[in-house]
Amino acid sequence: MRPRRSELATPANDARMCEKAAKSGADLVFLDLEDACAPAAKEAARATAVAALTGHDWGRTARAVRVNGLDTRWCHDDVIEVVTGARDALDVLIVPKARTARDVWWVDVLLTQLEEKLDLRKRIGLEVLIEEAEGLANATEIARASSRLEAVIFGAGDLSASMHARVDGNFDPLGDYPGDFWHHARVQVLTAARTAGVDAIDAPYPAYRDPDGYRRAAVHASLLGFDGKWAIHPSQIPIANEVFAPTPDEIAEAREAMDVYGSASDSGTGAIGRDGRLVDAAHMRLAENTLRKAALAGLHPPE
After folding, report:
1. In angstroms, rounded to a whole number, what is the distance separating the alpha carbons of residues 193 and 215?
2. What is the pTM of this model?
3. Are 163 and 132 spatial neighbours (Cβ–Cβ below 8 Å)?
4. First and final C-alpha spacing in the chain
5. Over the stretch 172-212, which tens digit does the pLDDT of each residue have?
């Protein structure tokens, strides 16, 4: 398990931006061979990505690469060249536009062969993007497709196109809409992730000069249960890191609730009244979630 409060997108063909990304403070940085690279730059970008992964001090930041889609001519060589060059300096591969479980299986098999061939010391994880109508319909099967899978990502941009939605450049509806335009899709992705026991990551927020809007979107995703959010600009990282981490008050409340409930449980009581509210086993699961997130974020719950 690794923290994923913030996942920073960085063009894989820009060596300067890759160097800055290593110092960004994001929980995960992915060097993007897909949308951030023009077709003419994709093949050369692989070497730039490998140099960045192996040549910089990434600290606690997880190192990832988003490869091109399985339906393109670049994907196969993306995986082979990046893994062969980066070796143990690569933590995660991100697979875009997953439509079926077989898509994930294909990457898993290729990675297994490469790890054995290269005698790699650690297993490379996978994240998948749910950003096609077919992928959304198959989200649960996709999330369960590989034991390598660590996170499922909601991709609003391509999903907008796949669904023929009428949205603006920030993937918001062009007209009045009753409620949250993407609520149902987000819950489908979140449910798939929780069914498989992996993380759920919310979509990017393209309006990088609107920090309040980014914070608002991050808070909404966090309340639903998402573990983190994409960042397309370094300025969005501290917002995500804050929003998707429990507050000191939440941590203290979770610890106290578990202590009180534990004492009552030892005496044979399965539910107690606390501050005018019933506290039972369901509340303990919520408290455990809070303390788990705190530990991943490096926050130490008070004893």
Report:
1. 23
2. 0.91
3. no
4. 23
5. 999 999 999 999 999 999 999 999 999 999 999 999 999 99
